[in-house]
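User: My instructor asked us to take a sequence, write out its structure as tokens, and then describe one feature of it. I'm not sure where to start. Here is the sequence I was given:
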Amino acid sequence: MSAPTLLDTALMLAAHGIPPLPLRAGKVPFGNCPDCVGNACGGRPNMKTPGPCLCPGVCHAWAAATTDPDVLTSPTWATAWRRAAAVAYHPGGAGLTVVDLDDAAAVAWARTALPATLTVKTTRGEHWIYRGAMTSRNAVRPGVDVKSRMAYARWLGRGTGAMTPLPDAVRALAVKEPSPAHRAPQSLTAPLRGHGGECPHRTPTYLERGIAMAVQRITEARSAVHATVYRTFLAVLSTHGGCGCLTETHVNRLFTAAQAKGESARHCTDAWTNALTALGL
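Assistant: Let's start with the prediction itself. The structure tokens for your sequence are:
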């Protein structure tokens, strides 16, 4: 029995609801056709859903991905498949998220920080694939990219293990940290030593005001609650996480405010842990 062609693989993915597209050598998509160069076609690269391009060519990277077998086998795609070096897919179009772990260090981090899920070996690392879509973001930490909506990932086989739901710990990775210019001071990171319980660089009154403001910020969030909780935790820890002045009571107040907005206890823990990691605490 002959080995499956790239087109066979693409049709198999499409039959399972996973939108494929061809990649050229170097793991890059095919370029725009002359009619679409310079966004002349009217903004197709800004699509938020996958689908065949309006032009007959294989254009616009992830936005060209489709589950339509008539498009995949059309004469205009035939040339692309003959020139292709690999098959990719649009994870977000299939309701999936790929955590791309680029090296052994990133894999080691994931094994301690993320829930187990379907795992696919790559050339240097692994893809961890979760059920659920989210915003994509590259370089969320050293050697780690998140690929879901408006992104593509190489198809490298079915992998091993059972796919699990997208965890809050992965969603938090795509939340951009506040600009360092607007962060609270982070210069003091040594643990508290013999100051009678006082923060060595802030008064207890300042700490209490900061916690109250953090609780208020979470409570008043009307949208993007996940991001608000993470950024608030990050701001509190950047000021007081290294000096030893935060107590379990303070942390419980922040978690209680977040859970009152509908966040799970697991998400609170994950957001707190990710904030600690982001700050190197």
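For the description part of your assignment, you could build on this observation: The beta strands are 20-24, 28-29, 86-89, 96-101, 118-121, 126-131, 137-141, 144-147, 153-154, 164-165. Try explaining in your own words what that tells you about the chain.
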